[in-house]
Structures are given as structure tokens and as C-alpha cells.
Amino acid sequence: MGKLKKVSATILATSLLAVGSTEVMKLPVASADAQILNVVTTGNTYDAPTQFKSEITSESSLLLSWSYLDAPEYKVTRDGEVIQTIQNSGQETPSFEDTGLTLGNTYTYQVYATNGVELGAAATLEVTFAPIAKPTINTLDPEFNPNRFSWEPIPGATGYNIFRDGFYVGTKLPDEKLIWHEAGIEPDKTYTYSVVALNGVLESEPATVQLTTTLERIEQPANTIATVIGENSIKVSWDQVPYATSYKLYLTGSAANYFESQVISDHEYIFTNLRKGITYTIAVEAKRGDLTSTVSRVVATTEGALIPLPTNLQWQANDQVGVDLSWDAVEGASGYKVYRDTDYVKTVTSPSFHDWGLRSNWTYGYEVSAIQGDIEGPRSNIVAITKLMDEIPIPIPSLKVTGKTYSSVSLSWTEVDGATNYGVYSGGDHSDIIPKNAKLVYYGHDLEAIDTGLIANTEYDYYVYAYKGGSRSEPAKLKVVTAPVEVVIIPEPTPDSGSNGGGAGGSSSGSNASPSGTGVTTPTTITPPDTSSTSTETETETNQQPTLIEPLPMQFKDLSRDHFANVSINRLVSDGTIKGYKDGSFKPNQKVTRAEFISLLVRALKLEDTESYKTTFTDVHSSAWYTNELSIALQIGLIKGYSDNTFRPREGMTREQVASIVSNILVKAGKAGERADLAKFNDELSSSTWAKEGMAIAVSSGIMSGYKDGTLRPKQTVTRAETAVIITRLLDAL
């Protein structure tokens, strides 16, 4: 090892020399001026410590740490000057806290392993001891998010503390969404919020914002109780809801769709003048301005019997292997329901009933109940026995088809000597005296009948019986296939001079689209229908069907001429808005998706795009078949996506979503009339709050209507048939 000249700072000098190097050092000496020495070091060396890092511990200090090396001690320098010698105590992670630092400065640190004479390689770390920046606050749209704000991320921040009026209310980490939202605080009050960025123990200056809060959600009324008060009154009460200014009550009775609504400020109410023996459902919702809670429901039944029991029920066997029933009239009854062996048979308006076609010498149980509108009273019952009749063989009639169309079959049969009546059935089980699950087409003494409301190109089984006294013949049987629908091709008109004939239309579910504006209906091949499909209940369409000057011939095998949407469908088919399917069907009851509805609407309104579609939704590919129509709808504000940046094109389009779009169009066109009172619908409460305005406009404008049971069904997905009617009504309203 090289020898040093003896000076008072020998240890300091050698501690700064790296092994194997030649250095010129200026050493301060206590008793003399600094001396210049050439020092050559030799011998073993140490590797540079690894994992050399720093951590801020205060506004003027930081902690340095590094990995363990097998050396007697460590030297730490700051900006080239030794600031600490640390004895190796065997710690796995040696450390040193440097103090007296100044914010805003940059420091260069090095650490060496040394044996007191020889230095190892240095680990170097540059640290900028900078203050953390103040966040920038962004207030969100106050109309929709009055209680929320966000801020921009700060580089190096390890978290953010949030304060309300000087009190700590929460912390956000850098990997979280930097949006603050507080629910449940007092509404209509101004608060001062502060955001402080953190970096270890360092804190930024606070960024502040003032927000005047509104109530975003009002609680559902709790502990709702209904108390029956005699035959005509029900008291309902509930706990007061914080911040509620009023309550809306809905009373729905099981009698004839009875409905009543009230708005009160108290938290209890008595419904009076009710009907006895009726079950009522009471719904309560809390309100504050436009804010409405979810409803709380209770059920209660008023005392007393609603409809008396029919009395003096009697029976008598008749000569047609039947039973004649009679009973005393019930005051106020609008009719009577008759049941045979617990099965419903018929509703009659007079207090008597003639049952026929029964088994000879057979016992039947009958029940009769009185009804008032939709309400049925208790049943009285009796047991009847048919007459014992001689079994007289009756010839089988000869049955034939006299005519058929795509929706009807005409039948005739030969007269049977002595027969008093004939019965014609379609389908069903005929193994017993009384056919089961069969459609009664005709019963009487005529020799011909017509069956209507059939499906085109479909096979039907018919049975004709002859009746004589208490006997019945074996059935004459016949299979009949209804006529196929006639497909009519409308010739393409010759364009006027200078006309270009129009461009190509978009496609929809089903067959390929034909060019729009040409007036051409694409011919289809007719195949037997799928009889396994079931129909669905549709809206009541009384006197609201749009008309054509020249109605098109019906061209779909699953669409009868008297179908409520037939004219609307053919109108949209004729202008290329909607198409059928390759098998000749239209599928009127098939549900419509969001993508399909917006495509049909844009095509029907003849809207054109101004720019190509740019993918904005995570679940819509730029090459999807509906992107052109979606782009147009987005540009003019017909539809929006969801908050998670999705469009959900395959989801069903609900009636309340349709109403919202339709009402938006009517308002923009200045065609929106008075808002309808939705309280007349039994399920008004099931509408989303945001959809009620649109539903009211759509109903008042005649674009949408309810169902026969008095419901609006806002959450139900629209069908292809309903969509066609809604779109044509909208076109007529504009």
C-alpha cells in the first residue's frame, strides 16, 4: 500500500481515495496551510453498494439507504464532500438521514464501502428536493353533478387529502379516479373543498373550490304501514324522509283497475270512499323538487264481501245430453261465470246457462260466481246428472272444403237424417265425449261453416259431428292446408328525365336491403311457417293506425291482413326502411335491439351523415353494419351511450327508451303537445324518473299507447311490429 506523508488529516485523505488510483489531494492541516500530495493506492477493493435510494422524511431531510457489503465502514458524500462515515453494524440495509436541506435544490449523493484506507466503487444517486405542485381542480357539469369535482394528477404525488370546510374527509390514491363525490350531506348549502397533494411527508399548497350542493338521491319511505278502517277506509303511515318536501301516494285496487293518487306534505294519509272487500296496493314515494325516491308498497283489504254468492242454484237434465242451470240474480252483477268440474266454461249475462254435448248418465259438478267488471265473487256449487239416453248410431257426415284463402277455410257437409245439430272443431283431443283443447268453429243446424284468423300455408285438422237426441256421431275428419300468401312484385317506375333514381339503402336484420327510393319489394320464397312460435300481447291500436292511399298486398306468411301493424309494416317495407326474412316471414313479435331500432329510425327519417363514424364506444366496431346510422344519430343527438363508454347495441330497446327518443324529435320539431297524465296507467311508477317526461309526450302525441290491461310497460322491449307502428305514427306527426 502507498505511504502517506504524515499530516493531521491522513485518515480523511485516504478515505477519499479509490484503490488503484493516483490522486492529487489538497489536505487542510490544523497547524499549516493545505499541502498537495500525490497518493497512489493499491490493494483490494469493494463493489459499489446496490439498491441505493432516498426517501423524503421532512421538508428539510431525507433518508438514504443501500444494500449490505462486507466492509468495516461506509462513506457518504454529498456533492463531492464527505458528510458521514458509518460503521458497518451488519444491518441488511444500512441507512443515513441527511438534514438541513433546502427545497428546490438538487443534490448528488455517493456511498462507498471502505476498510478505513481503501475505498470501493461508488454508488451514485441524484436527488431533486423539490416541493410538490398544487393540484388544479376541475368542476364537473353543475347541472348533472353538483356535488362532484375532479383534479389533474400531480407527477410524483403519492396521494391526495381532501378537506371540507377545513376538516379532513378522505384520501385518494394516484391509481384511483381523481373525482370526489360526497353523498348524504345537507343540500342547498355552500361548502369549501380543498385538495392537498402528498409526496411522502411533503404537502402541496391546497387547491380550493366552492360547491353549492343539491340532494342527489332521496331515501325510500321506511316502515310503511297500512291500517284498515272498516269497509271503506285505509290509513297509511310511514317514517318521515330526511329532506323530503312532499310525498306522492298511489292507490291501486283489484276492482276494475281502480286507481287514485295524492300528493301530501304529511307522513300519513287516510283513503276514504273505498269499496268493501277489495284488496288495495298503496305505494308511497318521497319527493323534493324533481327528485323522487323509489316507492314503498303495502297491501290491505277492506272489510266485507264485495259480491254476494249466487243463491238458489238449480239444475235440470235436458234431452240433448245436457244440463240447464238457473239461479237467482245478484244485485249489481254484470255477469256470471260458469265452471264445469272446476274448468271455466262460459260467462253469461243472465242467471241461467244451457250446457250441451255431455256424456249420457254422467255426473258433473257445476260452480257459478257473480262478477262486477273484472272482480269475481265467491262460487256457489251443485252436482248435476245427465239423462240416461239410448245410444243411437248416427251416420258420419261427409265433409269437404268449399273454399280457402291464406287466412280462412270454408267447409260444408252432408245432412244426416234426424240430426238436430252439427258441431265443427279444429284441432284438439277427440278421445272423449267433450273434445279437449279444441277450437269450436261452429255449432248449430246449418250445413256449412267458415274458420277465420288462420296462418298462411299451414295444415289444420277439422272434425264435424252430427248430434241427435243424446247421441253423437263419430267425427268426419279432414286435413286442410291454407293457401300460401301471394307475393306481388311492384314494377320499378321509370325515373323522370334527369333523375338519378336514388342511392342504396342500408341493411337490417333479415333479407338484404333493396335500393331505397325505388319502390321495389324484393320477392321472397314462401316456406311453411314455424307454428311453434307464440304470439305476444301488443298495444291497443284502436283508431290510431296510419293509412296508405294504396295499401300494399300482404306479403308475409306470419302476418294476417287484420294484424294491428299490417299497414305500418307494409308502408315501411315499401320505402325500404324495413325488410322481411328469407323464409317469407316478418317475425312481428321478435324483440328489437338498440342497434336495430336506431338504424330503422334513421332510415325512416331519411337522415344523412355529415362525417364518417369514429369509434367512440368500446363495444362498437368501426365496421359494424349499423355504424353509419349510429353516427348520424349521435351527430344530431338522437341517442347517447352509457357512462362506461358503451353503446350496448345488442340490448333490447325498451319502451321508455323509445319514448325518450321520439319525444326528443317532437320537441325539436316543435310538434310536442301537452304532456299526458301517466297516472291513468297502473304501472306508472315503474317508469324511470328520466323517462317520465318522454313517456308523457309520446302518449299525448299519440305515438305510443297503453295495453288492454291498463299498463304502459316502460321496461318492456319493443317488438318489430310495435316499432313499425311507432315509426309510422312519428312520421305522420312530423
From TrEMBL:
Q: Where is the composition biased (Gly residues)?
A: 499-508
Looking at the record, the residues that make up the SLH domain are: 552-615, 616-676, 678-734
Which residue ranges are recorded for the region named Disordered?
A: 491-549
Q: Which domain of life is it from?
A: Bacteria
Query: Where is this chain compositionally biased, Low complexity type?
Result: 509-547
SUPFAM superfamilies in alphabetical order: Fibronectin type III
* Span of domain Fibronectin type-III: 48-136, 220-310, 395-486
Q: Provide the protein name.
A: Uncharacterized protein
